[in-house]
Amino acid sequence: MPLTILNTDLLPGRNFIAGTWMEAEDGAVFAVSDPATGKDFASVPDSSAGDARRAVDAADTAFASWRKVPARQRALIIKRWNDLILANLDDLGRLISREQGKPLAEGKGEVAYAASYVEWFGEEATRADGDIIAAPVTGRRMFALREPVGVVAAITPWNFPAAMIARKIAPALAAGCTVVCKPAEDTPLTSLALVRLAEQAGVPPGVLNIVTASRQQAAHVADVWLDDPRVRKITFTGSTPVGKLLARRSADTLKKLSLELGGNAPFIVFEDADLEAAVEGLMVAKFRNGGQTCVCPNRVYVHQDVHDDFVSRLTTRVQALVVGPASDPASQIGPMINTRAVEKIDRHVRDAVEKGAHIVTGGHRLEPGSGAPAHYYAPTILTGVQASMACACEETFGPVVPISCFGDEADVIRQANDTPFGLAAYFYSRDVRRIWRVTDALETGIVGVNEGAVAAESAPFGGVKDSGYGREGSRHGLEEYMHIKYVCQGQLD
């Protein structure tokens, strides 16, 4: 099944600055490859500092007028964007699968998920109300007004190229901000396609600008935005080291930041859990996008009384997973994004085995044949995992389930919290008292209780500790793009 894009207008292949599609100022390009084959199939501009600066110039100029556009009018434009995304769902899904590798059903599912954020923030644009404050004396009126922060720089990751664009750009536009954006170098085409649809929806020139850059050029683009005082906010999803660098570099201009960073999510199965539900929840949470999500369970703790039963049930499900390219409708696990990703997964598995873990199933690369690169890794279950192993300390970002056995609730909570990260956590139990006890004790920004699929446009998404700060989605996500102006009017009596 070829992943052919029918609406070729979705493939502009250029930067979008000040309402114009253009090449990089020096004409440089870099290639985009299909992770299923390793073959290049498109190219996009390899932007420089000059391109990044032009994008800020355009966004800064446009901000003066965009912030004054009535909220209802901004909402209508954003809702038209949502309608166009849904009208092009099939093509966008194929494009995601082609450049990112996830199965086509997941690619289309991501488009629908992305659209849900666009629709949500289109509606929230009209709800950004302020407050009337009770005055302490007569003859005075006091108000708290919400205003857009200004130019926003969005830097997005490769694992959800549509959803991350939507989660960042839609609330920025809804708040009245203008945007400069750099998508991940592995998956720039989906982002460009979404910006093309935003243009068609009526987003005015300069309000939304996007520049693409290779891994070598990315820092030059980001440095311009970090140093420019006109950029008032950075929103970033990616690794914790890069997030900390952005926070340090933003200090000189005191930018507002939203940082959704690394995770090391625990998944706890208590002895009173519904095991079938727990297995299903783990399958949903762990193997989505081949394990390449920031909220994937990275450490699985199963109570000793149900450990063997749980592993047996899980093994049956994992061994039934079909691994293959997105072009095969039967595929449930696609290729990893690149060779570096596969090497990291394999290193984690080898390290665990060397330190005493047991491979229940999987544990090896899969050779696709036909001369294609080995970007596939077999869905894997490890048992006997200890805290000292790399797979328990680092984010694996692949289809590996490392299982540890526990016997005490307090001890497993200690183990779950024994990490610098705090993005998501999951646990399964039917004891209502334990549910609230464990929920309160877990040090994460997101908790899934008897549920493996936790993300929703109406819910706040984000972490604590080294997983960052700020929230995406929900009304809290809109507030991230606004500041409060206090107004006090006197002499009214």
Automatic annotation (TrEMBL):
Give the top-rank taxon of the lineage listed in the UniProt record for this protein. Answer: Bacteria
The name this protein carries in UniProt is Succinate-semialdehyde dehydrogenase (NADP(+))
Keywords of this entry: Oxidoreductase
Q: Name one GO biological process term.
A: gamma-aminobutyric acid catabolic process
Q: What is the organism field in this record?
A: Corticimicrobacter populi
Pfam families, per database record? Aldedh (PF00171)
InterPro entries listed in its UniProt record: Ald_DH/histidinol_DH, Ald_DH_C, Ald_DH_CS_CYS, Ald_DH_CS_GLU, Ald_DH_N, Aldehyde_DH_dom, Aldehyde_DH_Superfamily, Succ_semiAld_DH
Family assignment? Belongs to the aldehyde dehydrogenase family.
Q: Which PANTHER family match?
A: SUCCINATE-SEMIALDEHYDE DEHYDROGENASE, MITOCHONDRIAL (PTHR43353)
One molecular function GO term is:
succinate-semialdehyde dehydrogenase (NAD+) activity
| Aldehyde dehydrogenase domain segment(s) | 21-487
Q: Where is the active site?
A: E260
